[in-house]
Design brief:
about 130 residues
């Protein structure tokens, strides 16, 4: 009876760790995705027209102010892109390390399914990055 209870407890711990890994991966993916979208130039390297329309309308910007605000926002977006390029390898390293830790917890039967789940998650992330 104790061995059965210990086995259940072990399965529960593995399951909880797996769910936590998925949650951590999801949060990490969300944060990276948001950074990618923030850093990605829209259209021809300008801020989305809706943002400028809102600023122009709500702040009653003059044409000269619109040009200046557009330049500031484009410059900011450029800086975001630079940060993204610098930090992306670190995000990849953290993602790799967390996946390795999860792999170590899984049974040989669970690993193929985990790899398939990772493949699907990576594919979805790539789609989001190429189609914002």
């Amino acid at each position: 009876m104790d061995a059965n209870q210990g086995s259940r407890k072990a399965y529960l711990i593995v399951f909880v760790l797996f769910i936590l890994g998925i949650a951590l991966g999801s949060v990490g993916t969300y944060l990276v995705t948001m950074r990618v979208q923030a850093a990605r130039p829209i259209g021809s390297g300008t801020v989305a027209p809706s943002h400028m329309a809102i600023f122009t309308r709500d702040l009653n910007l003059t044409p000269d102010q619109q040009t200046q605000v557009q330049a500031i926002l484009n410059d900011t977006r450029s800086h975001y892109a630079e940060l993204h390029q610098k930090l992306d390898p670190e995000y990849e390293q953290v993602r790799h390390e967390s996946r390795e830790r999860i792999r170590q917890l899984l049974t040989p039967e669970q690993r193929p399914k985990f790899e398939e789940l990772l493949r699907q998650m990576d594919e979805e992330r790539r789609k989001r990055q190429t189609n914002p």
